[in-house]
TrEMBL record:
Keywords: Coiled coil, DNA-binding. Residues 9-46 form a coiled coil. Pfam families: dsDNA_bind. SUPFAM superfamilies: Double-stranded DNA-binding domain. One of its GO terms (cellular component) is cytosol. It comes from Methanothermobacter thermautotrophicus. Belongs to the PDCD5 family. InterPro entries: DNA_bind_arc, PDCD5-like, PDCD5-like_sf. It comes from the Archaea. This is DNA-binding protein DNK57_03160.
């Protein structure tokens, strides 16, 4: 019986250690995600006017994936040095129109 109890105890310890390790990894990933999010916010504050940031925040409520794509493009432009001054609300509107026009439409025709 003691062998069986030892095996059970070892197995429980292994499971606890795995759970603890997974929790630590999840916490580290969450911290990394938060850090990246803060960096992204800082860059957006540097390259967008308050009105443009407000427009993106409103748009994020309805189309978060689209806003994420726009933000990544803006960050890439800024990193390449192609953003010389803050992007205004009007410039952002034009960019949004261009990117929204690029989406593919799938038409299904039935016969």
């Amino acid at each position: 019986m003691t062998d069986l109890e030892d095996i059970r105890r070892r197995k429980m310890l292994e499971l606890q250690q795995k759970a603890q390790q997974q929790a630590m990894e999840a916490e580290a990933q969450e911290q990394m995600r938060q850090q990246l999010e803060m960096q992204k916010k800082q860059i957006m504050m540097q390259i967008l006017t308050p009105e443009a940031r407000s427009r993106l925040a409103n748009l994020r409520l309805t189309r978060p994936d689209f806003v994420e794509q726009i933000e990544l493009q803006l960050i890439q432009l800024a990193q390449m040095g192609r953003v010389r001054s803050k992007i205004t609300d009007e410039q952002l509107k034009e960019l949004l129109k261009r990117v929204a026009g690029q989406k593919r439409e799938i038409k299904i025709s039935r016969k």
